[in-house]
Amino acid sequence: MKLYYIPTTRAVRPRWLLEEMAIPYEMVRVTMAMTKEPEYKQLHPHGKVPVLVDGEATIFESAAICAYLADKYLDKGFAPAPDSPHRAYYYQWLFYATATLEAPVEHFMFNILPNLPEKLLPGFIRSETSKQESYQWFQRVSEPVKEALHGKHFLVGNSLTAADVVVGGILLWAKKLGMMQPDDSLTEYIDNLMQRPAFNRADENYYAQVPVHSE
């Protein structure tokens, strides 16, 4: 099993899950130059990370990789059983994370890091939402997550699942970018995730400074 990886990207999420599950894997560190090569485009059509190669399966999209791993190793407990009532909420948060929660964080990121080598998003779309608008957007879409976590440590059931890895990975980006207030009720959730040894093994560059772009 190979994971194609660049630090501080979405590739941290499946690496984090692999570390939590204690599954042997080979990490292939990718450079931006590698992503432009035709051979790499055979793995990911847009030359991005992560990519997981597991036997005959070659998968991209971080949430899809996490869902695949959690189901393949269901006995590890990172996904509810298919017949569990928790399964519906697990799906809900996996999809909410990438379809709704991540968008304002990405827009905010492009405002303070405008030179990111994003391959798909046109420049005019990057800048059409201001930093303040992105922040307000994030505050709105993070409210359901806060409500779901009220009095709980994890989103689904009483244990960490792949949904926490994906949602948590997005919130960790938000925290690093300065979108989280110290009194935000999500801070405890994020801090608990950051204390996990598997997270620290997976995201060794989390504490690297974010260069702030002055407008």
Description:
The structure is a single chain. The chain has 215 residues and is an alpha+beta fold. It has two domains: 75 residues, 3-Layer(aba) Sandwich (Glutaredoxin), CATH 3.40.30; 110 residues, Glutathione S-transferase Yfyf (Class Pi), Chain A, domain 2, CATH 1.20.1050.10. Helix content is 50%, strand content 7%. The chain is built from ten helices and four strands; from the N terminus they run βαβααββααααααα. The chain has a four-stranded mixed beta sheet, covered by helices on one side. Helix 1 links the parallel strand 1 and strand 2. The longest helix has 26 residues. It starts with a strand and ends in a 13-residue tail after the last helix.
Regions with pLDDT < 50 over 5+ consecutive residues? none
Largest sheet: 4 strands, mixed
- Architecture of the largest domain in CATH? Up-down Bundle
Percentage of β-strand residues: 5-15%
Query: Going across the major beta sheet, what is the strand order?
Result: 2-1-3-4
β-strand number: 4
**The CATH top-level class label of the largest domain:** Mainly Alpha
Q: The CATH topology of the largest domain, please? A: Glutathione S-transferase Yfyf (Class Pi), Chain A, domain 2
Q: Span between N and C termini?
A: 44 Å
- Count of folded domains: 2
Mean pLDDT across every amino acid position = 91
CA gyration radius, whole angstroms: 17 Å
User: What's the SSE pattern?
Assistant: EHEHHEEHHHHHHH
Structural class: alpha+beta
List the helices and strands and how they pair.
Blueprint: E1 2-5, H1 12-21, E2 26-29, H2 32-35, H3 38-41, E3 51-54, E4 57-60, H4 62-72, H5 87-112, H6 123-126, H7 131-149, H8 162-176, H9 187-194, H10 197-202
Parallel strand pairs: 1-2
Antiparallel strand pairs: 1-3, 3-4
Helix pairs in contact: 1-4, 1-8, 4-8, 5-7, 5-8, 8-9
